[in-house]
Give the backbone structure.
Amino acid sequence: MDFTFIIALGLFLLVLFLIFLYLRNKYGDQLTNFKVYFYLGVLFIILGIAIKYLVFSFLGFISMTVGLVNKKKWRDFEDWQNISSRKKKIKIVIVVLLTIIFLYLSITNFWLR
């Protein structure tokens, strides 16, 4: 693997961790939606297989297991109409960033070989 990819991945994970800490402190009183852990686990397993990077598949398996173990605590999602505009913007930015990262990994690992 390329050294710059490892540095970029490390920085990305660090930024995600910092965002997680900020949101945890801000919204710490809310309940955890373990259904999301399950869905993210499935997504990471598929992503790990697609880009042939088994670390993603392993993380997905762990996340999916956490979601399944806590299946009794699953909650329904909020309706898009009932979410504040700020939360909508944050969710859209997250989806766009993840899409860009996935496309970057796809292009660099498969199409530019």
Remarks:
- The chain is about 75% helix and 0% strand.
